[in-house]
Amino acid sequence: MLELRRTCPGSWVDFNGHMRDAYYMLLVSFANDRTMDELGMGPRYLRETGRTLYNLDMRVRYLKEAHRGDRLLVEMRLLAADAKRLHLHSMIRNETTGAALAAVEAVLLHVDQAAGPAAAPFPPEVAALIAARLARDAGPAPAIRTGGVGLTR
């Protein structure tokens, strides 16, 4: 499981006194970037191959509010993968209290930008890193899900 830590700055808080909804997604986007790096698909990969990951579907389930100064923890797991897609689950928590703040699930597609963009299979070296991450993240399904997200045909 990949972990990302941030503190909720005042600029992320809306007039209701809690973290604006878009920043939950921003936290997950930062964790996506770290996952892409870990799986060999960071900025260098894009420059060298013209390939990257695009979001196909991302859903959030808001559970509790975050406030200015809260220490936030994103726990990201790779739940499934196929030849071209990844299914990620992220839990955003208040790191101090452990409270679940939001669950986010996403399906990302490997694309060749020069081809249109068009879906492209992962190269063998990336597929090996994905397999290792799947093994590392294996375990019971997350207790809190968003529903309707996954790798289907």
Structural commentary:
There is one protein chain. This protein has 153 residues and is of the alpha+beta class. The chain has helices at 21-38, 43-49, 124-137; strands at residues 2-7, 51-62, 71-81, 85-94, 100-112, 118-119. The chain has a single domain, classed as Hotdog Thioesterase (Thiol Ester Dehydrase, Chain A). It has three helices and six strands, in the order βααβββββα. A hairpin with a 5-residue loop joins β5 (100-112) and β6. It is globular and about 45 Å long. The model has no long low-confidence stretch (mean pLDDT 95).
Jot down its keywords.
six-stranded antiparallel beta sheet, globular, 153 residues, Thiol Ester Dehydrase, Chain A, alpha+beta, 25% helix
Task: Report helical residue fraction.
Answer: 25-40%
Query: What is the H level of CATH, i.e. the homologous superfamily?
Result: Hotdog Thioesterase
User: How far is the first residue's CA from the last residue's CA?
Assistant: 26 Å
**Number of spatially distinct domains:** 1
Name the overall outline.
Answer: globular
Taken as a percent bin, the fraction of beta residues is: 35-45%
Organism: Pikeienuella piscinae
Protein name: Thioesterase
GO molecular function, one term: fatty acyl-CoA hydrolase activity
InterPro entries: 4-hydroxybenzoyl-CoA_TE, HotDog_dom_sf
